[in-house]
Design a protein that fits this description.
- The structure is a single chain.
- With 169 residues, this protein is mostly helical.
- Helix content is 38%, strand content 0%.
Length: 169
């Protein structure tokens, strides 16, 4: 059971002890529990630093524009900023379903893929054909060169080391 859970009975007791409304007591309890018990939001999850060389089968500059036009509705490149899809910083050559702060489909959770150029190409081309029950519901991208350009762009992201959380400095 989470330490972040607080009870209505506890709020009633607090309210009567301090002569405040029960709703105010509930808010106060939530604040104290969150501050005092370590109840904090899940920190942004990072993929490890990309050490593979950038993919040379496409044009990363064209890929960046294609990514912005086709992918940003559902994806970001900022850890902790997942949308409908997971953030994609460091996705190139990373294991699938790696981020702990994103809820993947059951199908993706069990795919056990590595996001190399071949896998990304097939998945971007037609996600549902490659992985039935995927959460990625984008239209198929039939243009091979567009896919290669997006992969080249994705391969340039995540070469810098992820930031070190404050408590580890």
């Amino acid at each position: 059971m989470s330490l972040c859970v607080y009870s209505s009975a506890g709020a009633k007791h607090l309210a009567s002890a301090f002569g405040i409304k029960k709703s105010v007591a509930l808010l106060a309890m939530a604040g104290f529990v969150a501050l005092g018990s370590g109840c904090t939001p899940t920190p942004p999850d990072y993929r490890p630093q990309v050490t593979a060389p950038a993919y040379q089968g496409g044009d990363a500059q064209k890929g960046e524009k294609l990514y912005e036009d086709n992918c940003t509705q559902c994806h970001t490149i900022r850890p902790g900023s997942n949308k409908k899809g997971p953030q994609l910083l460091g996705v190139y050559m990373a294991p699938s379903a790696q981020l702990k702060d994103y809820k993947y489909s059951e199908a993706m959770s069990h795919a056990n893929w590595v996001w190399d150029a071949k896998t990304l190409d097939k998945y971007i081309a037609d996600p549902e054909a490659v992985l039935p029950d995927t959460r990625m519901l984008s239209d198929p991208m039939p243009n091979t060169q567009d896919r290669q350009d997006i992969i080249a762009y994705l391969s340039t992201l995540g070469h810098d080391a992820p930031p070190v959380p404050e408590e580890k400095k």
